[in-house]
Amino acid sequence: MIKILKHLKLTEWLLILVCVGFLFAQTWLDLKLPDYMTDITRYVETPDSTMSQIWETGGKMLLCTLGSAVTSVIVGYFAARIAAGFSKRLRSKLFHRVEDFSMEEINGFSTASLITRSTNDITQIQMFIAMGLQIIIKAPILAVWAVAKISTKSWEWTALTGGAVAVLLVMIAAIMIYALPKFRKIQWLTDNLNRVTRENLTGIRVVRAYNAEKYEQAKFEVANSDITNNMLSVTRAMTVFNPGMTLVMSGITLGIYWIGAYLIDAAAGMDKIATFSNMVAFSGYAMQVIMAFMMLTITFIMAPRVQVSAKRINEVLDTKPRILDGKSTQSPADVAGEIEFRNVSFKYPDAEEYVLHDISFKARKGETVAFIGSTGSGKSTLINLVPRFYDVSEGQVLIDDVDVREYTQEALHNKIGYVPQRAVLFTGTVSSNIDFGDNGQELVIEGKSAGEVTEEDRKAAREAEIRRAVEIAQGAEFVEQMEDKYEAHISQGGTNVSGGQKQRLAIARAIYRKPEIYIFDDSFSALDYKTDRILRSALRKETSGVTSLIVAQRIGTIRDADRIIVLDEGNMVGMGTHDELMKNCEVYQQIAYSQLSKEELGA
Prior knowledge:
The protein is of the alpha/beta class. It is built from 21 helices and twelve strands. It has helices at residues 10-45, 51-100, 103-108, 111-135, 138-150, 155-202, 204-209, 213-239, 241-266, 271-317, 379-384, 409-414, 430-435, 455-472, 476-481, 499-513, 529-542, 555-558, 578-584, 586-595, 598-602, and strands at residues 339-346, 356-363, 368-373, 394-399, 402-403, 416-419, 428-429, 489-490, 517-521, 547-551, 563-568, 571-576.
């Protein structure tokens, strides 16, 4: 927990000091009340006292109460401000750190866990800071100050209060020994519940298609019951605490008056009035001591869960990304779009066996290189090395004669238009999803210099480029039929469009980027053969001079590629054109004959 507080700003530390000052003032005002109550008791019992003295002392009590309330509001405001600002900054740092992670680090934390860490865990810390500034700091001040005042009264009453505190501490220790392990489990159980829920919602179509609702419900019930039973166990333990505190407070009050009765009876003359007044004051101070320990107990209850949350957040913040920026931002202009693999081998982190073995080839500017092979042959893994989703284990991947590890990630990714195996759309509109591909390049507007271009011109050029990209991707027909056309709403994950429409919008996003290199990771699989053929034909015309890497399962998608690379269990077993591979590559022949007839292949 202490480690995570290093993220507090200097201004926030200064506000904490201000809070401490107000807490001292609040404690002083609270502890003045028993003194004034003593004075009122003495005035009531003394015959020559006047009513004005009682009113005056009562007025001071009201002012102290009002002052205590005002300081409490001020401390609460500052505490909430510090806690909210700190949690906002912590959440932002956590998000940015996750954004910097490579696939290796992302896979080290489950999605459900990262969601819990950036929401529930940070909320726990926010609540702890907000309450802690009001309780953790005030409780010791109040306890020490009240004990100091108590010790000047009577050793009998002081011993009684000490005994009550000892009973209280034993009770707290017993509850904490039982509850602490269960508090530590809460966050992990929350992770598990989120995981099961997210998994069910993500795969809802499969669940319904296989009538697996009861199975998923049973799985959810297990996760739900685990966290419920854990919370019930903790709650049962904590329910003992409230009656226990009431018993201690009632017992100490009874004990003070019982001892007080003997002390008053033993006192002589006017000492009886002084003893009675001291008893009233001591009762107030004793309650303040017990209240201080009650406040500390609330902190003890929250602390274990917050400590776990802080540890989990630190795990993310302390995880260093394996893939770091290089220094290069540019490459030689004469080889823009050239890709080379030099003796590349790759294995996933912590895996024993290599997924790719000694892959070497070169894709020159403007060429289309396709990859084909059986499932698990390493096709997607190979092209994921180009944008550095992973770094090679051995060898080099070069773009424009520069190792990809030497580029800054921004410069590298600006060279690439990437269409993933599973098309991803974001909440927004058709336009916003296409515009997601914008890499910051200035749009060229014919007939106008850079200084003459207005915002309206840029907007019109942007809309024209979006339409052009959608047209090339063969998506204009279905987009034009949508209610708001290019401003039509897209749900999270693109759930309100079909798989083929998602793929075409994802391809349009890559085209809008105008990159040096296109990467299509099995991006035509949801398209029918006719749309696939028309789209590839349009791509060849509109993106000539741009290098393309295509992963596909269909022979028809890649047979016109300049070069086809055949992979089998991570090894490159063939490279050449379709006709060449049909003559000399057995693996390619098997794939081809499994999809097309000899007549179709001969044609």
